[in-house]
Design brief:
The protein has 5 helices and 10 strands; from the N terminus they run βαββαβαββαββαββ. The protein is an alpha/beta fold. The chain has a single domain, classed as 3-Layer(aba) Sandwich (Rossmann fold). Strands 5-4-8-9-1-10 form a 6-stranded mixed sheet. Strands 2-3 form a two-stranded antiparallel ribbon. Strands 6-7 form a two-stranded antiparallel ribbon.
Length: 221
């Protein structure tokens, strides 16, 4: 199987390397932090798919969701022209449907901007995990064993959404669980991908890649 990852930009993690952050790194970081519901210093001005600029501030998060929603909706409509469920990958502590406000907001921002896309809160974990960034599990098998999918959801094409993709373990586990339940899952869209050096094409031009074709490198992440 394949699971293509599509991201708006990079989430710079240059610790221990000689690379310095430029304006693009700060702008991408601020966008993702705002989508996560975390405060940012100052503001960021980014360009939306329609060419218009939007300003993002801590007390003005709607700008981040507007940019993310427009970009992701265009991408989703291209990937699933016949429509699809837009389903968020749950946060590490989400152990019941309806308790992941961040994920629900990400999915809603996408679905409301394109016909045929339907936001559905359909996945949770059997147990609460420590966040991966704090040492929680990234192993696909461990994660898969603990994915729970909403029962009786009509079989359909599914596009997963998330704020950041690092190694991809959570996305792969959720995709496999949805497939096990009878859904078609070939794509995940995220606001950012953790990068450890400046991408060749720039922080906002990361090519799509197949998560399942590339084994997780736990030393790298």
């Amino acid at each position: 199987m394949t699971l293509w990852a599509h991201v708006h930009g990079g989430y710079a993690s240059y610790d221990g390397t000689p690379h310095k952050w430029g304006q693009a790194e700060y702008d991408s970081f601020k966008l993702i932090q705002t989508l996560k519901g975390k405060p940012i210093n100052g503001y960021a001005t980014l360009r939306k798919p329609n060419g218009k600029s939007v300003t993002i501030r801590t007390h003005m998060p709607h700008g981040a969701f507007e940019l993310w929603g427009e970009w992701a909706a265009l991408k989703a409509a291209q990937l699933a022209p016949g429509g699809a469920y837009i389903i968020p990958i749950p946060s590490a502590d989400c152990i019941a449907i309806g308790t992941d406000g961040k994920g629900a907001a990400l999915a809603a921002a996408v679905a409301k901007r394109a016909p045929g896309l339907i936001a559905v809160d359909a996945i949770h974990w059997a147990v609460a995990f420590v966040k991966a960034s704090q040492g929680g599990p990234r192993d696909v098998d461990t994660l898969f064993e603990n994915v729970r999918v909403l029962a009786n959801l009509p079989k359909s094409e599914v596009i997963l959404v998330d704020d950041v993709i690092t190694g991809g373990g959570h996305a792969i586990a959720c995709a496999r669980a949805m497939r096990w339940a009878g859904h078609k899952v070939e794509h995940v869209i995220a606001a950012g991908h953790t990068v450890h050096e400046p991408p060749p094409g720039g922080i906002f031009n990361i090519p799509s890649w197949d998560l399942e074709a590339d084994p997780l490198d736990l030393d790298w992440i």
